[in-house]
Design a protein that fits this description.
Chain lengths: 321, 364
Amino acid sequence: MDLTTVLQILDSTIRLGTPLLLACLAGLFSERAGIFDIGLEGKMLAAAFLSAAAAFVTGDVWLGVAAGIFAALLMSAIHGLASITFRGNQLISGVAINFLASGLTVLLGQYWFALGGRTPSLTGDARFAPITLWGAEALREVPVIGPIYYELISGHTALVYVAVAMVPLSAWLLYRTRFGLRLRAVGENPAAVDTAGVSVVGIRFAAVAICGVLTGLAGAYLATGLSAGFVKEMTAGRGYIALAALIFAKWRPWYALGATMLFGFLEAISNRYQNIDLGGIVIPVQFMQALPYILTVVILAGFVGKATPPRAGGEPYVKER
Amino acid sequence: MQKMPPWADALLVPLLSLLIAFAISSVVIFAIGENPVEAMKLMVTGALGSSYGWGYTLYYATNFMFTGLAVAVAFHAGLFNIGGEGQASLGGLGVALVCLMVPWPHWSLALIGAVVCGALFGALWAALPAWLQAKRGSHIVITTIMFNFIAASLLNYLLVNMLRPVGSMDPATARFPAETNLPGLGEILGAVGIPFSTSTPANVSLFLALACCVLVWVLIWRTRLGYQIRAFGKSEKAAVYAGIRPVRITMYAMLISGGLAGMMAVNNVMGEANRLVLNSVEGAGFIGIAVALMGRSHPFGVFLAAILFGFLYQGGAELALWTKIPRELITVIQALVILFTGALDNMVRQPVEWLFARAGRGAK
């Protein structure tokens, strides 16, 4: 394997890891505030659809992103209403959101565009173009550093850089601000936050809204950055992989970057090679596809580094009377 | 506060939730430029207007009874088994192996073999998540989701690389021998003099599903294990105090749940397809969640809800055939049913409770 191949695989690792990273951070905010979210998949799917539809109609990709965020926020509002206001089961609400998005996207897509649930292909300004970073062209010929900078770091679409910037931003917000402290506290011990006179419901809704914005970005990236338009079920389980990455990352932002890039790498490998021959032992492509889930089960089992979820996760908060 | 009478809890609240779900679905149908009343008529005639329609409705309902019961049993133990999809596809593997490998002389013996093997494979696929939940505290919802995906990859591998007959491009097993073909519902009813369409996939598994409904009822409300499962589901602390062992109950409940999901394969793999194909479960595992919620985890409720979803499935197929409404409408209805009977239950319940409390005060 030469440098070019390695760079190509790492390049698609970043591309494929980006939606996972955004969705994983989305889940991180929600779950750190004590709201389990298995509806990441549905939110991403809804966002992917509406962003592609809006980008096609307006011809402006940023309006598409805004529409995608709007769609994901609507789904978040349902989740918040069910799990915070009416103290329903958060997992069941998540399942409902996944089905709602899966059905509505095809229903509306067929009604609007009559292409069997697809949106028309996006071209020109309706999708994200790669950004060439400053000096990439000039450095291109420098050995080793040049190709790495040109291929790997430069030349991605805007949302990739947004996603990477979200990691330090999330870490700062969670660990360095008053809001972050309260958000984490709401997920561990909501009664204490309530005693301090801070609204548990308010913080939790804020967390769910942040989750909506980030899944909106993730979905918009899928439809307008990674591909050119929406196709039926295009999230293809990425919401669940993001959920797996969240556990793998033990609910921490920087670890989330590592976990999602690892899972992105696995996807890049299985896209490129059908079966991997390791001197006699052939690893089938299906094993690579299942690996993120297997790794997550191993981590969950606590044999390798125990993952402990936020203590108040999944429980609706009931004020003491 | 005055409690609601039991009938309101068991019937009124689910019916109201269902009504809201259907009302919103009608708005959706209206919004995409179709007539909800016409759509409903078409669904009813398509699914219930002929014995052909009924055959398909009952075939789908059989699937949903198995997966619905699977989710319901786990719910009673306070566990959310979201892995019915994976367990049912592993059940399919078990049924396929036993049908292909054993030279069965008669379908009745093959049926017994398939039930045992399907349930066993389904239960095994539920065993590891159950054990991890019981022993290591790994959240069963997450592990069963992961196991759904692992099952999909495993079956993909086995069908493409191992079970595919030589020379076939299709990732599916060979056809099962004719001796294992189950008698259809039309033949059975025809034998006792009831005319019923013979060209539907409904088969003898329907009676197996009905028997499972009764058995689950007996298990949950008439046996010691059922009592322990319910006690554990209501309050783990109290159950432990009463000497109920959490590891044992978690394992039993999940093994039964996985076994029921696995048995679904008798209907769809053995009864209908006569071979194992990729993605044979087609989402029935997830519909089990809606069915169990709708049926309030009671076997009779599961039975009714399964029939309802069978009707929706067959009706939805007819809609897609005759109108421009895609099949995905059913997914939307399913989502709304899960949302209102499951997650937004309190939204429907609170006003009803309030009304009963008011009426109760008025009577005094």
